[in-house]
Design brief:
about 130 residues; alpha+beta; about 60% helix; about 15% strand; globular
Amino acid sequence: MTAVQNRSGKIAVTVTPTQARHIATAIRVDLMTRWEPHWITSFAHRDEFNAARSLLDERADELEMLQWGEPAGDVDLLLERQRLSELALSLREGGEECTATRNGAIAESGEVRRQGEAMIATARAIDQALAGA
């Protein structure tokens, strides 16, 4: 993973297809956790719709850059340093949850554990790219 800071203050991070898939998953989870159930109801107000639209627009742009986690090759993700740090943290936390042990026993299946390890590796790669930018 490589990173280059541009004039706008954003950082371009080149990610592999596997990394893009993990980052897209983290973005979707983040979107789900920030979604307010009262936004889309028959009683929703303009402010609630605007908040929902803003969140969707922001995350949709990120997912588009990642080709919704299904790129044919490496892709460039252009984001603010803070947002990249947030994504790395989400990946690390999700990966740790997948690889955690409960009462001395592995909590998840081998495949889930491997995905958790890949998520942690992606978080580390983002952190290293940010350190070099």
